[in-house]
Structure formats: C-alpha cells, structure tokens
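Let's study today's protein:

:::
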Amino acid sequence: LVVRGVGFLIPEHAVEPELPGIVQGERLSHALERALELSFCPKTGHRPEVNQVRTQFLDSLPRVKTTLETDAEALYQSDPAASSVHEVRLAYPGFYAIAVHRLAHLLALAKVPLLPRLMSEKAHQETGIDIHPDAIIGAGFMIDHGTGLVIGQTTEIGNYVRVYQGVTLGAMSVGKNLANVKRHPTIEDDVVIYAGATILGGETVVGKGSIIGGNVWLTKSVPPASLVTHDPQITVRTPSPRKSRTS
C-alpha cells in the first residue's frame, strides 16, 4: 500500500511507470481494499467500513498530491544543495517520509486500526524519520537530512516549517493515563528548528517565525519571531610545541 500510494502521488516513485494513471489507480484501490479488510476485521472483512474509508481515502488523494507538490517546492527553495524539484521528489528521504505520513494520516483520521502506524513505521525503517500518523502537519513542510527526527502523536505543525536532523517534538511525560491528552508541542507557521533541538510538552507553543537553534532544550512557549539558542561551554586545548629530536 505504501509503495503504490507514494508511487501514485509521485511519478518518480511509480511502481509501474509504463502503466496509464487509471490502471495505477485501480491497483492502488485494490491494495487499499485488501489492507483495510485485514485491518478492520481479518476474519470477516467488514465491508461497509472498508468501502466508506476506501472512498474517502481515494477522494482525498488530489488534495494530498497538491500538498506534496508544495512540500517539494518548499524544500527545493530552502536547500541550496538541491539541484531541482525532481531531485527532491526522487532522492530526499525527508520528502519520502512526509509523503508516507500524509497517506497514513488520512487513514488515522478515519480511525483505521494499526494500518496507519504500520505505514509510518515503514517510512521510519527506511529513512530514520519517525512521524506518528496522528500528528497534524501543514503544507510546505521541509525536512532537511532528517535522520533521528521524532514527531509525537499530538504534535501540531503549521505551514512552511523547516526541521533538521535529530529534532524531537515530544512529551514531558509518557504515562498511560495521558493517552487522550495533548502531550506534544504546537509549532506555528514559518518556524525553523535546527539539528538536535528538543521541544517538549502539550502546552508548549513555538510562535510564528521563530528560530530554534541547535541542541536547544525547550519546555515552555516562546512568542512569535523568537530566537532561541543554546550557549555551550567550549574548551579548546592548545597543544604544547613538540621538542626537537636533536634537543
């Protein structure tokens, strides 16, 4: 389902690029139907739920495709190392991870059991990027590098947010009694979060246009246009000159 879904939305990842789009759509629909039957009721295949979710999922694909085009363009514009949007779509793990997330999120919204999480874990295994399928992520999302990125279940991310490798958008506490509570932060539009930053807590809001520096540990809200940095202690030891062998 992941392979056919991403391939249907992103031509560079098409499983059978020689086939007409309508045929690829039919094969995606069949893969989705089978996966939903196994998810809802492995033994009986509860058809009414399967048909309803399948229709909603397929009807949402044009909107998801448009959002992914915005993601790819935003990443291309923000990364001087990217030579083209085609390169982003074909080779960037962050773009692949967000594509899988947007598909998994559709199924999570429909309360499909297990399947969305399996999809997100496939992307996690392939890219090192861990995005919970329930997380809400706006358009123009840019993941640069991305290895070690973690985005928790109740995270909310606005439009045109850029994050780097090793970022954690997590919870202050992981008690089971908090399962239905917002535990992860809210990131507003146009925020940049640099490598290794950790932002925790369901009440933590990073205001629009803020910059969160590398290795920052943040557990409280910051207003729009904030610059948050970590000031480490760095010690440089100057080596002593070596004595001459002849001295």
